[in-house]
Amino acid sequence: MAVVRLPLLLQLLLLLPLLLLLLLRGSGGEDAEVVCAGTACYTLHRAELGWNKAQERCRHDGGNLAPVRSPGEAEQLRGLLAAAGWPGPAWIGLWLSRGRCVQPQELLRGFAWVAGRESGNYSAWLSEPAITCLSSRCVSLRPAGPPGTTAVGWADHSCRALLPAFLCKFSFRGMCGPLPLAGPGRVLYTTPFGVRSPQLAAAPFGTLAEADCEGGEDGGTPAFALCKGPLEGGGFAWHPPGPLCPAACAHRNGGCQHRCLEAPGEPPRCACHPGYVLAPDMASCLPEDACHPNPCQGTCRTRPGGFECGCEDGYALAPDGHRCLDVDECLAGPCQHECRNTAGSFVCLCPPGYRPAGPGGRHCRDEDECAQPGVCPQLCLNVPGSFHCACRPGYQRQPGGGDACLDVDECLRDPCPGPCRNLPGGFKCLCLPGFLPEEDGHGCHAAPTAGEEPTGAPNSTLRTTGIPQTTGIPWTTGIPQTTGIPRTAGAPWTTGIPQTPGIPLGVPPPAPTAVGSAPGPEHSADGPRLLLYYILGSLVAILLLLAFALALLACRKRAAKREKRPAKSAADNYCWVPEQPESRGAGGERSGWEKR
After folding, report:
1. Alpha helices per DSSP H over 40-70
2. Which residues are within 8 A (CB) of 224 and not within 5 positions of it... i.e. 6 or more apart?
3. Which residue of 340, 405, 449, 538 could cross-link 391, Cys pair, CB 3.0 to 4.6 Å?
């Protein structure tokens, strides 16, 4: 018997710190309605308090006033109120602090849960809350209709109002199931938040279970167990596992789910049928997990009486049923160009000048290299998988295979009837005075004179290598003929230029006209203008000669009259002549002396 009592004493010593902790927290073993599910417990406390005091009570025990964020949470609290038979209102953790305004357009009307986090998309207002920004408002949970109705809703009150009950919520990492008993007895659960209850469908982590066994060899000594965890495979379990209150297997099968085994001198113990294993509570049985440890290289799935192995995508099950072999997807030709097999998958490759396209990159699309700046110096031509560089008209590729473009000297081909000037990418044909460039830029035609209508027909354009003499105007004598004009190599040209009548001495001929300048009004009026200049020049010369002759004649007449009178002074031997001939004839002033 001493062997049996020693573990019980050790258990009491191990559980003593937890008992002291519960006493220090001042729980006092409060009897309150409690319901636990999942990872949370909800409690109903009957005490007439304001909202702030109720929140302090929940916070003191490690929780908060209960939120109602979802229909499931509302159902938990409704069941708790129904189990307690409580018809009246109870505070919950929804409030509006002072300085915040009620927002009629929002789901929670501007209220917030005291526990924080997101507000959720659930509300159950029985009536619209009072519109205010100056005072705090708090919310209670109460039945939505007359007694006997199952629905609950929200109502707002002054936070200072005294309500007869409040609801708290406590969250935990996990739960233990009910403590199994092998013999007759009762269990009293003391939760970490200080509430004692004889019945719990789930006990939160840290709950102390006290088993009061009826009769038995222990003489009614209570047994204790603590909800601990997590276990190696996850979850939480009682320690010691139980079943407590050991008795003969004849009483309720010793508390075992499947089989109860007895041995001389040992307490009864539980066992399971083949294909099942004993649960952590050492009383219930669970299906045997044939996949723990995993006998497969890939995935393992438990089947009745065994297991089944599987492989991930890209692998196939080996003939032995355990290993996984890589599948060569390239054998099915999934790629447009090149396929490379990898472990569990494959990769599609594209040749140079292409890039992956389409779903999964299995197709290849030509890459436009010409879209990148600076690929070619002038022109870029994209071709499938590559590109070519080209030159603009008037240029040619650099000898030796380079991409540079060199200017072509078109004047070497004698494209002009007269002088030719080479330009980058082109050339200019120069035309002599009185001629205009043709529209194609490769010849010259005579400019129309005053009163002459331009032909405008390309076939009537005069192509010439010299300048024809203008008829109808007498040639001015004494003007030397121009012997030649410098020419561009390779272009035919005349060795002389026919004289143009009416051009005074010392007046240089106008410069040649370059092809490419559009003929304007100044070009079409050059002939009449030059003719007018020649006529005016001749008139001025004739008038000057007449003025000089008249002045000379007047001077001689005066000298003849003076010969009859004696000479009085040396000035009498001179006469006045005009300083500068003018077109006004002999009436000009005398500006110089002339000796008789």
Report:
1. 51-60
2. 11, 12, 15, 208, 209, 210, 211
3. 405
Contact 143, 87 (CB under 8 A): yes
Residues 182, 206 within the same domain: yes
282 within a domain of the structure (yes/no)? yes
First-to-final CA distance of the chain = 182
Residue the block writes with tokens 């081909």: 413
The answer as to whether 215 is a domain residue is yes
Q: Tell me the C-alpha distance between 15 and 211, whole Å.
A: 13
DSSP string, 206-271: T-EEEEEE-STTTTS--EEEEEE---TTSS-EEES---BS---TTTGGGG-SSEEEEETTEEEEEE
Regarding whether 272 and 201 lie in a shared domain, the answer is yes
Structural domains counted in the chain: 4
**How many CB atoms are located within 10 Å of the residue 45 CB?**
21
Report the Cα 204 to chain-centroid distance in Å. Answer: 48
Q: Which residues constitute the domain of residue 97?
A: 40-171
Residues 62 and 128 placed together within one structural domain of the fold: yes
Which pLDDT tens digit goes with each residue over 314-350?
899 888 888 899 999 899 888 988 999 988 888 999 9
Establish how many alpha carbons lie within 13 A of residue 186's alpha carbon, considering only the half-sphere containing its beta carbon.
4
Note whether 272 and 197 are same-domain residues.
yes
Does residue 71 sit within a domain?
yes
Residues of 227-250 as b/e, b for ≥16 C-beta within 10 angstroms? bebeeeeeebbbbbbbbbbbbebe
**Considering 272, 287, 302, which residue would you say is the last residue of a domain?**
287
- Do 93 and 208 fall into the same domain? no
Per DSSP bridges, beta strands 30-31 and 195-197 are: parallel
d(CA 340, CA 347): 5
Q: Which residues of the chain have pLDDT under 70?
A: 1-31, 117-119, 145-150, 183, 215-221, 230-234, 242, 246-247, 280-281, 304-305, 450-529, 563-596
**Contacts with 494 (C-beta within 8 Å, 6 or more apart), sequence order:** 465, 466, 467, 485
- Which tokens hold the place of 578? 């005009």
Residues 6+ apart with CB under 8 A from 327: 314, 315, 316
The answer to whether the CB of 86 falls within 8 A of the CB of 78 is: no
Per-residue pLDDT, 266: 79
Please answer whether residues 223 and 244 qualify as being in contact, where contact means their C-beta atoms are separated by less than 8 angstroms. Answer: yes
User: Does residue 146 form part of some domain?
Assistant: yes
Instruction: Tokens for 154, please give them.
Output: 């929200």
